[in-house]
Specification:
By secondary structure, this protein is an all-alpha fold. It has eleven helices and no strands.
Length: 331
Protein backbone atom coordinates (compact mmCIF):
# COMPACT_ATOMS: atom_id res chain seq x y z
CA UNK A 1 0.00 0.00 0.00
CA UNK A 2 1.44 3.39 -0.92
CA UNK A 3 1.56 6.22 1.55
CA UNK A 4 -1.16 8.09 -0.42
CA UNK A 5 -3.52 5.12 -0.07
CA UNK A 6 -2.86 4.65 3.61
CA UNK A 7 -5.78 5.33 6.02
CA UNK A 8 -3.71 7.88 7.94
CA UNK A 9 -2.51 9.78 4.91
CA UNK A 10 -5.19 12.43 5.46
CA UNK A 11 -4.01 13.15 8.99
CA UNK A 12 -0.21 12.68 8.96
CA UNK A 13 2.10 14.76 6.81
CA UNK A 14 4.39 12.57 4.72
CA UNK A 15 7.16 13.57 2.37
CA UNK A 16 7.03 13.05 -1.34
CA UNK A 17 5.46 14.63 -4.37
CA UNK A 18 1.87 14.62 -3.13
CA UNK A 19 -0.12 17.84 -3.52
CA UNK A 20 -0.12 19.90 -0.32
CA UNK A 21 -3.81 20.63 -0.70
CA UNK A 22 -4.65 16.93 -0.36
CA UNK A 23 -2.99 16.61 3.07
CA UNK A 24 -4.18 17.66 6.50
CA UNK A 25 -2.23 17.75 9.69
CA UNK A 26 -3.49 16.46 13.01
CA UNK A 27 -3.83 20.03 14.25
CA UNK A 28 -5.91 21.08 11.22
CA UNK A 29 -8.42 18.27 11.68
CA UNK A 30 -9.14 17.94 15.41
CA UNK A 31 -12.40 16.04 14.95
CA UNK A 32 -10.97 12.69 13.98
CA UNK A 33 -13.03 9.51 13.74
CA UNK A 34 -12.81 7.37 16.92
CA UNK A 35 -10.55 4.80 15.28
CA UNK A 36 -8.03 7.49 14.26
CA UNK A 37 -8.19 9.69 17.33
CA UNK A 38 -5.72 7.96 19.76
CA UNK A 39 -2.27 9.40 20.22
CA UNK A 40 -0.95 7.05 17.56
CA UNK A 41 1.55 9.58 16.33
CA UNK A 42 2.83 10.27 19.83
CA UNK A 43 4.03 6.72 20.65
CA UNK A 44 7.75 7.26 20.48
CA UNK A 45 8.81 3.63 20.61
CA UNK A 46 5.81 2.03 18.90
CA UNK A 47 6.14 -1.09 16.79
CA UNK A 48 3.80 -2.51 14.12
CA UNK A 49 2.76 -5.33 16.43
CA UNK A 50 2.03 -2.89 19.26
CA UNK A 51 -0.17 -0.62 17.18
CA UNK A 52 -1.66 -3.38 15.08
CA UNK A 53 -3.32 -3.59 11.71
CA UNK A 54 -3.04 -0.91 9.04
CA UNK A 55 -2.25 1.75 11.63
CA UNK A 56 1.31 0.44 11.96
CA UNK A 57 2.44 1.72 8.55
CA UNK A 58 3.95 4.02 7.47
CA UNK A 59 4.41 5.55 10.95
CA UNK A 60 6.24 2.53 12.33
CA UNK A 61 7.99 1.57 9.11
CA UNK A 62 11.74 2.08 9.46
CA UNK A 63 12.28 2.35 5.72
CA UNK A 64 10.51 2.78 2.44
CA UNK A 65 9.79 5.47 -0.15
CA UNK A 66 9.52 8.91 1.32
CA UNK A 67 10.76 7.75 4.73
CA UNK A 68 11.55 10.55 7.19
CA UNK A 69 12.52 10.56 10.86
CA UNK A 70 9.51 10.26 13.13
CA UNK A 71 9.95 13.78 14.50
CA UNK A 72 9.72 15.19 10.93
CA UNK A 73 6.62 13.31 9.85
CA UNK A 74 4.42 14.18 12.83
CA UNK A 75 4.01 17.27 14.93
CA UNK A 76 5.84 16.60 18.21
CA UNK A 77 7.13 19.02 20.82
CA UNK A 78 10.80 19.88 20.47
CA UNK A 79 11.50 17.89 23.64
CA UNK A 80 9.54 14.85 22.46
CA UNK A 81 12.58 12.89 21.40
CA UNK A 82 13.82 12.96 25.02
CA UNK A 83 10.44 12.19 26.57
CA UNK A 84 9.58 8.79 28.06
CA UNK A 85 7.83 6.40 25.65
CA UNK A 86 4.05 6.46 25.76
CA UNK A 87 2.45 3.48 24.10
CA UNK A 88 -0.74 1.49 24.40
CA UNK A 89 -2.74 -0.92 22.31
CA UNK A 90 -5.40 0.70 20.17
CA UNK A 91 -7.92 -1.93 21.21
CA UNK A 92 -7.37 -0.97 24.86
CA UNK A 93 -8.51 2.59 24.25
CA UNK A 94 -11.48 1.46 22.19
CA UNK A 95 -12.53 -1.04 24.87
CA UNK A 96 -12.10 1.63 27.57
CA UNK A 97 -14.39 4.05 25.75
CA UNK A 98 -17.03 1.37 25.22
CA UNK A 99 -16.91 0.47 28.91
CA UNK A 100 -17.26 4.11 30.00
CA UNK A 101 -20.23 4.49 27.70
CA UNK A 102 -22.05 1.24 28.51
CA UNK A 103 -21.15 0.20 32.08
CA UNK A 104 -22.91 1.20 35.30
CA UNK A 105 -20.92 2.91 38.04
CA UNK A 106 -19.86 -0.13 40.10
CA UNK A 107 -18.98 -2.19 37.05
CA UNK A 108 -16.96 0.68 35.64
CA UNK A 109 -15.07 1.11 38.92
CA UNK A 110 -13.79 -2.46 38.80
CA UNK A 111 -13.11 -2.14 35.09
CA UNK A 112 -10.75 0.70 35.97
CA UNK A 113 -9.02 -1.60 38.44
CA UNK A 114 -7.70 -3.61 35.49
CA UNK A 115 -6.78 -0.53 33.47
CA UNK A 116 -4.79 1.07 36.28
CA UNK A 117 -2.67 -2.07 36.53
CA UNK A 118 -2.00 -2.77 32.87
CA UNK A 119 -3.06 0.13 30.58
CA UNK A 120 -2.23 3.37 32.35
CA UNK A 121 -1.43 5.35 29.21
CA UNK A 122 -4.83 4.60 27.70
CA UNK A 123 -6.40 6.15 30.80
CA UNK A 124 -4.15 9.19 30.48
CA UNK A 125 -5.17 9.59 26.85
CA UNK A 126 -8.82 9.47 27.80
CA UNK A 127 -8.24 12.20 30.40
CA UNK A 128 -6.35 14.28 27.85
CA UNK A 129 -9.30 14.02 25.45
CA UNK A 130 -11.57 15.42 28.23
CA UNK A 131 -14.32 13.03 27.14
CA UNK A 132 -16.69 11.48 29.71
CA UNK A 133 -14.70 12.77 32.68
CA UNK A 134 -17.91 13.18 34.73
CA UNK A 135 -18.28 9.37 34.52
CA UNK A 136 -14.61 8.57 35.10
CA UNK A 137 -14.24 10.66 38.27
CA UNK A 138 -17.08 9.13 40.37
CA UNK A 139 -16.16 5.61 39.24
CA UNK A 140 -12.54 6.11 40.33
CA UNK A 141 -13.69 7.68 43.61
CA UNK A 142 -15.93 4.67 44.25
CA UNK A 143 -13.04 2.28 43.57
CA UNK A 144 -10.88 4.25 46.03
CA UNK A 145 -13.59 4.16 48.71
CA UNK A 146 -14.19 0.41 48.40
CA UNK A 147 -10.55 -0.65 48.39
CA UNK A 148 -9.30 1.80 51.02
CA UNK A 149 -12.26 0.84 53.20
CA UNK A 150 -11.19 -2.79 52.98
CA UNK A 151 -7.69 -1.92 54.14
CA UNK A 152 -9.17 0.19 56.93
CA UNK A 153 -11.08 -2.88 58.17
CA UNK A 154 -7.78 -4.79 58.30
CA UNK A 155 -6.16 -1.96 60.28
CA UNK A 156 -8.96 -1.73 62.84
CA UNK A 157 -9.32 -5.49 63.28
CA UNK A 158 -6.45 -5.31 65.76
CA UNK A 159 -8.77 -3.76 68.33
CA UNK A 160 -12.07 -5.50 67.68
CA UNK A 161 -15.17 -5.30 65.52
CA UNK A 162 -16.19 -1.69 66.19
CA UNK A 163 -12.70 -0.37 65.54
CA UNK A 164 -12.59 -2.35 62.26
CA UNK A 165 -15.87 -0.84 61.07
CA UNK A 166 -14.82 2.64 62.18
CA UNK A 167 -11.47 2.46 60.37
CA UNK A 168 -13.14 1.03 57.28
CA UNK A 169 -15.29 4.17 57.11
CA UNK A 170 -12.69 6.73 58.17
CA UNK A 171 -9.91 5.71 55.78
CA UNK A 172 -11.93 6.49 52.59
CA UNK A 173 -12.97 9.78 54.21
CA UNK A 174 -9.30 10.55 54.85
CA UNK A 175 -8.42 9.94 51.20
CA UNK A 176 -11.28 11.98 49.76
CA UNK A 177 -10.85 14.89 52.18
CA UNK A 178 -7.15 15.07 51.34
CA UNK A 179 -8.03 15.27 47.65
CA UNK A 180 -10.65 17.97 48.24
CA UNK A 181 -8.16 20.04 50.23
CA UNK A 182 -5.25 19.70 47.78
CA UNK A 183 -6.82 19.68 44.29
CA UNK A 184 -7.77 23.40 44.20
CA UNK A 185 -4.18 24.45 44.93
CA UNK A 186 -2.79 22.12 42.27
CA UNK A 187 -5.18 23.44 39.63
CA UNK A 188 -4.66 27.09 40.58
CA UNK A 189 -0.87 26.86 40.53
CA UNK A 190 -0.98 25.12 37.15
CA UNK A 191 -3.16 27.84 35.66
CA UNK A 192 -1.07 30.70 37.06
CA UNK A 193 2.11 29.16 35.66
CA UNK A 194 0.70 28.66 32.18
CA UNK A 195 -0.32 24.98 32.14
CA UNK A 196 -3.48 24.37 30.13
CA UNK A 197 -4.88 21.63 32.35
CA UNK A 198 -8.63 21.90 32.91
CA UNK A 199 -10.07 21.47 36.40
CA UNK A 200 -11.78 18.16 35.58
CA UNK A 201 -8.53 16.82 34.14
CA UNK A 202 -6.73 17.73 37.35
CA UNK A 203 -9.47 16.16 39.46
CA UNK A 204 -9.44 13.00 37.34
CA UNK A 205 -5.68 12.63 37.81
CA UNK A 206 -6.17 13.07 41.56
CA UNK A 207 -8.82 10.37 41.93
CA UNK A 208 -6.82 7.98 39.76
CA UNK A 209 -3.86 8.60 42.08
CA UNK A 210 -6.03 7.75 45.10
CA UNK A 211 -7.39 4.66 43.35
CA UNK A 212 -3.84 3.51 42.55
CA UNK A 213 -2.80 3.99 46.17
CA UNK A 214 -5.86 2.03 47.32
CA UNK A 215 -5.11 -0.85 44.96
CA UNK A 216 -1.60 -1.11 46.37
CA UNK A 217 -2.92 -0.95 49.94
CA UNK A 218 -5.30 -3.85 49.28
CA UNK A 219 -2.50 -5.87 47.69
CA UNK A 220 -0.52 -5.49 50.95
CA UNK A 221 -3.53 -6.07 53.21
CA UNK A 222 -2.79 -9.84 53.61
CA UNK A 223 0.67 -8.95 54.96
CA UNK A 224 -0.80 -6.42 57.39
CA UNK A 225 -3.42 -8.95 58.49
CA UNK A 226 -0.76 -11.62 59.01
CA UNK A 227 1.21 -9.42 61.40
CA UNK A 228 -2.01 -8.29 63.11
CA UNK A 229 -2.83 -11.92 63.93
CA UNK A 230 0.70 -13.03 64.83
CA UNK A 231 1.84 -10.01 66.90
CA UNK A 232 -1.26 -9.19 68.96
CA UNK A 233 0.71 -7.58 71.81
CA UNK A 234 2.94 -5.23 69.79
CA UNK A 235 0.86 -2.16 69.03
CA UNK A 236 3.85 0.09 68.26
CA UNK A 237 5.22 -2.37 65.70
CA UNK A 238 1.87 -2.58 63.91
CA UNK A 239 1.58 1.19 63.93
CA UNK A 240 4.95 1.59 62.23
CA UNK A 241 4.13 -1.25 59.80
CA UNK A 242 1.03 0.59 58.62
CA UNK A 243 2.96 3.86 58.34
CA UNK A 244 5.54 2.08 56.17
CA UNK A 245 2.86 0.52 53.96
CA UNK A 246 1.10 3.86 53.53
CA UNK A 247 4.41 5.51 52.69
CA UNK A 248 5.28 2.99 49.99
CA UNK A 249 1.82 3.07 48.44
CA UNK A 250 1.62 6.86 48.64
CA UNK A 251 4.96 7.30 46.88
CA UNK A 252 3.86 5.05 44.03
CA UNK A 253 0.51 6.84 43.87
CA UNK A 254 2.06 10.28 43.42
CA UNK A 255 4.40 8.82 40.81
CA UNK A 256 1.27 7.84 38.93
CA UNK A 257 0.07 11.44 39.23
CA UNK A 258 3.43 12.68 37.97
CA UNK A 259 3.37 10.33 34.99
CA UNK A 260 -0.19 11.31 34.11
CA UNK A 261 0.63 15.01 34.35
CA UNK A 262 3.73 14.53 32.19
CA UNK A 263 1.72 12.68 29.57
CA UNK A 264 -1.01 15.32 29.34
CA UNK A 265 1.56 18.14 29.21
CA UNK A 266 3.37 16.21 26.46
CA UNK A 267 0.16 15.85 24.45
CA UNK A 268 -0.52 19.58 24.89
CA UNK A 269 3.02 20.27 23.67
CA UNK A 270 3.87 22.03 26.92
CA UNK A 271 6.77 21.53 29.33
CA UNK A 272 5.75 20.19 32.71
CA UNK A 273 6.53 22.39 35.69
CA UNK A 274 8.45 19.78 37.68
CA UNK A 275 9.35 22.08 40.56
CA UNK A 276 5.75 23.08 41.18
CA UNK A 277 4.54 19.49 41.00
CA UNK A 278 7.14 18.29 43.49
CA UNK A 279 6.29 21.09 45.92
CA UNK A 280 2.61 20.20 45.64
CA UNK A 281 3.38 16.51 46.26
CA UNK A 282 5.15 17.47 49.50
CA UNK A 283 2.13 19.57 50.54
CA UNK A 284 -0.18 16.66 49.67
CA UNK A 285 1.85 14.28 51.85
CA UNK A 286 1.90 16.68 54.83
CA UNK A 287 -1.85 17.36 54.58
CA UNK A 288 -2.61 13.63 54.37
CA UNK A 289 -0.50 12.78 57.40
CA UNK A 290 -1.88 15.56 59.57
CA UNK A 291 -5.47 14.82 58.57
CA UNK A 292 -4.88 11.17 59.39
CA UNK A 293 -3.64 12.22 62.82
CA UNK A 294 -6.83 14.20 63.43
CA UNK A 295 -9.03 11.26 62.36
CA UNK A 296 -7.22 8.70 64.54
CA UNK A 297 -7.43 6.04 65.87
CA UNK A 298 -7.24 3.68 62.91
CA UNK A 299 -5.49 0.76 64.63
CA UNK A 300 -6.60 1.28 68.23
CA UNK A 301 -4.63 0.15 71.23
CA UNK A 302 -5.85 -3.08 72.81
CA UNK A 303 -7.19 -2.65 76.31
CA UNK A 304 -8.51 0.84 75.62
CA UNK A 305 -12.23 1.48 75.08
CA UNK A 306 -13.42 2.07 71.54
CA UNK A 307 -13.25 5.68 70.38
CA UNK A 308 -14.49 7.04 67.09
CA UNK A 309 -12.08 9.98 67.36
CA UNK A 310 -9.28 10.44 69.87
CA UNK A 311 -10.10 13.11 72.41
CA UNK A 312 -6.68 14.64 73.08
CA UNK A 313 -5.44 17.28 70.67
CA UNK A 314 -1.78 17.53 71.67
CA UNK A 315 1.08 16.12 69.60
CA UNK A 316 1.21 15.37 65.89
CA UNK A 317 1.84 12.54 63.47
CA UNK A 318 5.63 12.89 63.44
CA UNK A 319 5.99 12.87 67.23
CA UNK A 320 3.77 9.77 67.46
CA UNK A 321 5.87 7.91 64.89
CA UNK A 322 9.10 8.91 66.64
CA UNK A 323 7.79 7.72 70.02
CA UNK A 324 6.69 4.41 68.52
CA UNK A 325 10.13 3.89 66.96
CA UNK A 326 11.92 4.73 70.19
CA UNK A 327 9.70 2.36 72.17
CA UNK A 328 10.49 -0.50 69.80
CA UNK A 329 14.24 0.20 69.86
CA UNK A 330 14.31 0.41 73.66
CA UNK A 331 12.23 -2.70 74.28
Amino acid sequence: MSSDDHPLSGQVEASGAAEPSSKKSLDEDPELPPELEPELAFALDSTPDRLGGPFASPLASPSGPGHQPLEDRIKLPKSAANSPPYTYALEDLQALRRAIQDSHLVQLAFYFLDYILRAQTALFEQIHSRKQLPRIIPAMALLCMLLSGLYGVVMGSYNGFFQAISSGIKLPILFLLTALICVPSLYTFNVLLGQRFRFLQTLALMVITLATTSILLVSLAPIALFFTLTTPDNYQFLLLLHVLIFGLCGVYGVRYLYRGSAYIAFRMEQPLNNTLLRIWMAIYAVVGMQLGWRLRPFVGSQGMPFELLRGEVDGNFYIAVWRALMEILNS
